[in-house]
Amino acid sequence: MQALLNKTKGDKVIWAAVILLTLVSMLVVYSSTGTLAYRLSKSAESYLFKQFAFTAVGLLIIYFAHRINYTIYSRVALVLYVISIPLLIYTLFFGAEINEGTRWIKLPIINLTFQTSDLAKLALFMYLSRQLSRSQDDIKDFKKGFLPLIVPVGITCMLIAPANLSTALLIGATSIMLMFIGRVSVKHIAMVVGIALIPLVILVTIATGYYNKEEGQSKELPAVLQIGRIPTWIKRIQDFAYSDKHESAYQVQQMKIAIAKGGWFGLGPGNSEQRNFVPHPYSDSIYSIIIEEYGLIGGIAIVFIYLLFLFRSIRIFKKCPFAFGAFLALALSFTLVIQALVNMAVNVNLFPVTGVPLPLVSMGGSSFLFTCLAIGILLSVARNAEKMEGNAATAVNA
Amino acid sequence: MEVKKDILWRVSLCFLGIVALSLFIIGKAFYIQQVQGEYWKSMSDSLHLSYRTLDADRGTIYSEDGSMLSTSIPFFDIHIDFMADGLREKEGKRFTTNLDSLSIGLSKLFQDQSAAAYKKQLQAGYKKKDRYYLLKKKVSFDQYQALRTLPLVRQGRNKSGFIVEDMEKRLTPFGLLANRTIGLARTYVDNNRQVVTQNVGLEKTYDSLLKGVSGKRLVRRISGGAYVPVEGSEIEPENGKDIVTTLDVNIQDITQTALMRMMTDNQALEGTAIVMEVATGKIKAIANLGLMPDGSYFEKDNYALKTSEPGSTIKLVTLMSVLEDKYVTLNDMIDIDGGVWMLNGRRIQDAEKSPKSHLTIKESFEHSSNVAMAKLAYTYYSKSPAKFVQHYENLHLTSRTGVDLKEEFRPMVKNPKRKDWHMQTLPSMGFGYEVMLSPLQILMIYNAVANNGKLMKPYLVNKVEKDGNVLTAFEPQVLNEKICAEQTLHQLQECLAAVCVDGTAKRVFKTAVYHAAGKTGTAKVNDGNFKYTDGVYQSSFAGYFPVEKPKYSCIVVIKNKPRSAQYLGGSVAAPVFREIADKLYAGDIEDMPVYIAKTATDSIKYKWSGYSSDTKNILKEMNIPFIDSAAKEEWGYVYNDNNTPGIKALAVNENQVPDVKGMGLKDALFLLENMNLKVQVKGKGKIINQSLAAGQTIGKGQTIMLELD
Fold first, then answer.
1. Domain contains B45
2. If interface means Cβ-Cβ distance under 8 Å, which residues of chain B face chain A?
3. How confident is residue A248, by pLDDT bands cut at 50, 70 and 90?
């Protein structure tokens, strides 16, 4: 045990934040899966055990990933990215349909569904970190600097968007932020944002246009807008914009009720009432359940943990002597925290309803494991930075 | 390091952005919670909590002898939610695998459609994603129990989608019997989508007791659309109380059957018959039949409680008045003017022409002379009509009887001080017009005469019970201890008995084995539907029996079709009374005075048949020597063999009608019914005649009539 602990390196605060979040996760998941377990005639504890298993596996992944020298990731980044593209295409056309969007494929042997966008995201950020670190000299150049960055981002996002628009937007936004941090020309970035905004503005215009304010109902959509997930997007934007009156804004209303019921100090662990009514209380809506059970104080604490995590990751970035590691730390930590904030923002109705889980807290699944892998890589960077520091210190002392 | 610094401020900027977003999130959460909190919380309550009514079981109405007259049974409506999670999961695997066996099960259970038809029906519903598909309505409890064991259904609501709603249905096990009096309790949704509860009869009068108090339960919605009670919020329903009526199922059956027979034969429009227990005023039976458009009869309305001009039955009151006020005696003579009396331009006429022009008061009552009664009323009360009306008041005829039914009509007895009292009123009242009374009220008066002048309040409910414990018991109520002087009473009783011996009901009761007393009535109907000139007559007979010790009083009132061939009270209503009285007398023989049957005198030439060994035993016991030639034959007859009784074997062959003449009924019944004959009996004593000749081959289910004397 001691040996294992000795070998566990990297930022201690990040380790603590991760463990804290997984503990919260187990509590809240246990409380909120009662409904699901009941509906599927499973024992109330079955999901707790599952989450426990996921956590154990996740921590192992973190441990092994952080023992690996992160420079290896630089080498596999390109390969991984290239693999992710056909996987996304396959998912789009042949993936399993869960909650109406085709985002999943089933791994043939271990029989586990996983969201290919998680893999693609990790691959993309590894690739971006590598590219940013390599092309710092020509970074302001359109051809040499900008294009090699924006083309992969564009491809990945466009492949994810049809099934999972919110994730695509999230990845896109985080990528652009990374490019900004990586000193890509602001002019180029503005151009990309401008182009990306066009379809979004159109979508919002349609959503508001096809809504009858007096009756509080959506209007019938023409056939052109009935394709794929377009109606879902429109509905979600409407739900978001008119949540107080709109009849179908059920999830938004229920999440707000959960938050309102929580008060400052919450109803106490396991006492959530809204878990029976909020859709996906163990994943998408988990933050509102946390506030219901642990109060606004608990909610603030969760935000604080994520911010702390980000802050410590930036510290790693500062310490890391190698550009790739530094960018990797930023990319992985920012995307994790942004995802967390998006989930929370959805829960407090700052953003439209999207299917983004709260990283490390929402009930397990492939995204949980990928998050763990990302954290492992981050800690690997930290470990190396520490080692360098240690070496330097030893050198000075010597 | 320039590059790194350039990057650092960008990172810091982004970090600040993230912090700002975090603060926004916390701020918004704070806003939802602290500013809008109440709104959302109240919305939560309205969405998740609701009050459910817990229906109380409605009480049962019993007859006096403990038969259920009206009771509630549960039934179920079955719906299917084809969008149930369990049904749909794995692409409807559960539905498809169970479809065939379920269809077969349903077909077997309900026997109304083939399995294929059920399968088709289920598939259609599944395809339509119907969330509330009506499978079957009004499923009985037994069927429901069986349904729950069928494949798929037994997996429970969440998996099968089967929704069961239980309802309550009011059932009257005796069908038509006193249906209108027991009443209806039904709830339905009318055209304006309002829930209407329509009760009549006892169901209405005692609705508040029968229905109980519904309970309340606060329920909270939980997952899967299920509701759980919130602890401590439940108010248990209090089940309804039971009502034990005075009605007797057997008497009711007899009464209805008798009434129905006459109504059908005479194609009458509506009729009622009430049987009352003399000593208590208990209503033992109350039958009401009305002609339906299809020619059948149904308990359409409670005619027993509806008022009409009573006709001659009210002459009892006229007679009582003049006797009580000592204006006349029974033997005083009265001139009936040949049955037609012109009074101030109005023609008063007797319904049946009387044999003589001058009658005694008693005779005029026996023969129901309208002229006589009009004259009596007119002669003695013109000066003080109030005195006449006072008798009505003493008899409680000016107000409702107060029987336990809300449908009772208010009677109409005119007041001399009012404008509508005119010079014809008094003579008309004398023979039953210009006064509106219900059959029940008339019966009440006849019952009082039978009950030695004690006027009893008619009533229908003995007691109110809960779980077999008596909550309230109702005792007989006396309205008037003595309606008239003892002497008057005896005279009235004498006259009523005379009607059945010498008067208008003479023919009807000629063969009765008991003595009845009563009065016929034949009134022209003028009720809004019909005018006097339409030739619609209301025939009635009110009376009691047995005269010596009155046990039951009874009234029969039948409104005939226009210009019916039979319309006199003596030929329409009295026979119904007779039939009811016959059966009640026979059924209640122990309580009744005994009438000795006249038997034929024995002659020297006798032949009595019977069970041989019984006959021999009797002769031996009585030490009468006899000649036995019957040997060991089971059946034999005794005859005069040179002044010594001789016993000879009686030929009894299989499938041949035996000679039962000279047998007692006990032996004859045993013998004949063992040969699968149906036996009908008339008279009493020994058998003197048989409808099937001896030696005839017996047909299947044949009936033999035996005449006894």
1. no
2. 3, 6-8, 10-12, 14-15, 18-19, 21-22, 24-26, 28-30, 32-33, 36-41, 43-44, 47-48, 85, 158, 221-224
3. very low
Distance to chain A for B100, nearest Cα, Å: 24
How many domains, chain B?
Answer: 3
Q: Which of B32, B48, B87 to mutate to test the interface with A (most CBs of A within 10 A)?
A: B32
Q: Are A14 and A378 in contact (CB under 8 A)?
A: yes
Considering B177, B211, B242, which residue would you say is the last residue of a domain? B242
Structure tokens at A395: 């050198």
pTM of this prediction?
Answer: 0.56
User: Does B15 sit within 8 Å of A273, measured CB to CB?
Assistant: no
Specify whether B267 is located in the same domain as B236.
Answer: no
Range of the domain at B680: 603-708
Burial of B558 (0-12, 13-18, 19+ CB in 10 A): buried
In a domain, B122, yes or no: yes
In this structure, is residue B401 part of a structural domain? Answer: yes
CA within 13 Å, CB half, B29? 35
Structure confidence at residue A366 (pLDDT): 82
Nearest CB to A350 within list B24, B39, B224: B24
Q: How many CA atoms lie within 13 A of B579 on its CB side?
A: 18
Q: Is the pLDDT of residue B41 over 90?
A: no
Q: Does residue B216 share a domain with residue B285?
A: no
**B556 and B615 inside one domain:** no
Residues B407 and B433 in one domain: yes
Query: Per-residue pLDDT tens for B365-378?
Result: 988 888 999 999 99
pLDDT at B420 over 90: no
- Assess if residue B17 is contained within a domain: no
A175, A309, A348, best to mutate vs chain B, most B CBs in 10 Å: A348
Neighboring chain A residues of B43 at a CB cutoff of 8 Å: 253, 257
Angstrom CA distances, B634 to B609, B650, B652, B673, stand at 11, 8, 9, 16
Q: Which CATH number belongs to the domain containing residue B74 in this structure?
A: 3.90.1310.10
State pLDDT tens for residues B114-139.
Answer: 888 888 888 888 887 777 788 888 88
Report CB contact under 8 Å: A296, B33.
Answer: yes
Give the per-residue pLDDT at A363. Answer: 85
Q: Which of residues 258-277 of A touch B (CB under 8 A)?
A: 259-263, 273-274, 276-277
Kindly report the CATH number assigned to the domain that includes residue B568. Answer: 3.40.710.10
Indicate if B224 and B256 belong to the same structural domain: no
Question: Which residues 70-129 of chain A have a CB within 8 Å of chain B?
Answer: none
Interface of A with B in 10-69 (CB under 8 A): 34-35, 38-39
Same domain? For B259 and B275 the reply is yes
Q: What are phi and psi of A297, to 5 degrees?
A: -60, -45
Structure tokens at A314: 């930036």
Last-in-domain residue among B189, B210, B242: B242
Is pLDDT larger for residue B39 or for residue A300?
A: A300
pLDDT of A397 strictly over 50: no
Instruction: Compute φ and ψ for B319, nearest 5 degrees.
Output: -65, -45
The interface predicted TM-score (ipTM) is 0.89
Q: Give residue B58's pLDDT.
A: 84
At residue A286 the predicted structure's pLDDT band, cuts being 50, 70 and 90, is very high
* 3-state class (DSSP) for residue B583: helix
B92-108 pLDDT, tens per residue?
778 888 888 888 888 88
**Contact present, B313 and B442 (Cβ < 8 Å):** yes
Who among B11, B22, B44 is closest to A181 (CB)? B11
Q: Are residues B368 and B439 part of one domain? A: yes
| % of chain B surpassing 70 pLDDT | 93
Asked if B10's CB is within 8 angstroms of A180's CB, the reply is yes
Is the same domain home to B336 and B441? yes
Task: Point out the least confidently predicted range of A44-48, B170-174, B216-220.
Answer: B216-220
- Distance, in Å, from the CA atom of B583 to the CA atom of B576, rounded to the nearest integer, reads 11
Distance CA B146, CA B133 (A): 20
Residue B262: closest CA among B562, B514, B525, B579: B579
